[in-house]
Amino acid sequence: MVDHTTVLIAGAGPAGLVLGNLLQAQGIGTLVVERASREQVQTRARAGFLGPNTARILTEHGLAAGMLHKGRSHGVCAFRGEDGEFELDYSTLGRGEVHTVYPQQDLVTDLVAEYLDRGGEIRFGSTVTDVDASTATIRYRDERGDGVATGRFLAGCDGGNGVTRQAVPGPRLTQDHGVSWLAVLAEAPQSMAAVTYAVHDDGFAGHMARSPGVTRYYLQVPPGDDPGEWTEERIWAALDTRMRTEEFGQLKKGPIVERRIVRLRSEVLDPIQHARLFLVGDAASSISPSAAKGANLAIMEAELLASALISALRHDDERPLAAYSRTCLPRIWRAQEFSRWMIDLLHPQDDDFHRALRRARLHSLRDSRAHQDFFAEHYVGI
Ligand SMILES: Cc1cc2nc3c(=O)[nH]c(=O)nc-3n(C[C@H](O)[C@H](O)[C@H](O)COP(=O)(O)OP(=O)(O)OC[C@H]3O[C@@H](n4cnc5c(N)ncnc54)[C@H](O)[C@@H]3O)c2cc1C
């Protein structure tokens, strides 16, 4: 049997779920095919910092109840290095905007519930195995066997390791930034009020709030390290050293409930569309988490694609769809550029010359209002 819908969506992450919700709200039929179980997608802890454009999209489209109820406004970050610590109150810099801290798994849980309420259908546990962009057809496999689904349009929202991106011909611009992080979740309250970035000769360390009882930490580790080699004691000892806790106060410690290696990589497809297939989020471009842009880009692109599909399906105007890549790519590249800027700022360099340059950039960020405004605008915006 072949399932048919208007817009077929591969992947139930932030990209696919925002897109599905916006289309269902307009009475446009959608079907989401998702490899993982509902439980898995609703417990995958990843992003947490939502920018103001994301908050606007969620609010305007009736998807923000959970974020408004449980999310926390965040407008200060701190930098620690060999010259001490300074804070930037970015809510008073640049455009005066802030982040909302709301864990991605909570957002995904809200989006799944709302999408189902709007009459959408998700096939959990169904893996897309093959894609035909010219007919907007996918083949998928689930516990019942093989299936086929078609749509008038197909949205590839199946992340950086998905299948749909393989059906888009064209160049892939990739960059391995040569840095790996151990991403850790600790069942512990945040230790500092602000996001804190620590630059140390041993490597970068980061502290980010997630929810009142859970904090994310990052530790730069040698590429190829095995997360299993990082015991709780070793993690807290490295964080103490790099966060200079003897000088700035102890960390609030607790059990480490997740540790994974994240290799800082970027990949941008150009174009991000082919025939009836349109890529959204990590499927279109992967970005290192150094500037917390991935989920924000995914949700921005989902809104743009929803609006273009509504023009095509409701007003018989396919021009916004034809321009989808051209509209998204400059924004993707600005996010990539700032993400790379953050990598250069936060990581120690092997040679003295580059070490001195990095230190000078931190001094400039500490002392120059113009530099701070640049940082604030790019840190929260896309
Ligand atoms: C440690 C970490 C911290 C991060 N912090 C931030 C942050 O603070 N702010 C931020 O903006 N971003 C952050 N990100 C990035 C962010 O999590 C991603 O950019 C975001 O999840 C992208 O959303 P997406 O919907 O495009 O893809 P995904 O969330 O990856 O969703 C893709 C979905 O497709 C499904 N899928 C994959 N293959 C198939 C298949 N063959 N068939 C069917 N389904 C399939 C997957 O199971 C998944 O559910 C972070 C990432 C990491 C790893």
Automatic annotation (TrEMBL):
Keyword Cell membrane part of the UniProt annotation: no
Pfam families for the chain: FAD_binding_3
Keyword Nucleus: no
Lineage top rank: taxon: Bacteria
Membrane-spanning intervals of the chain: none
InterPro entries: FAD-bd, FAD/NAD-bd_sf, PheA/TfdB_FAD_monoxygenase
Domain annotation FAD-binding: ranges: 5-338
MF term (GO), any: FAD binding
UniProt keyword list: Monooxygenase, Oxidoreductase
This protein's name: p-hydroxybenzoate 3-monooxygenase
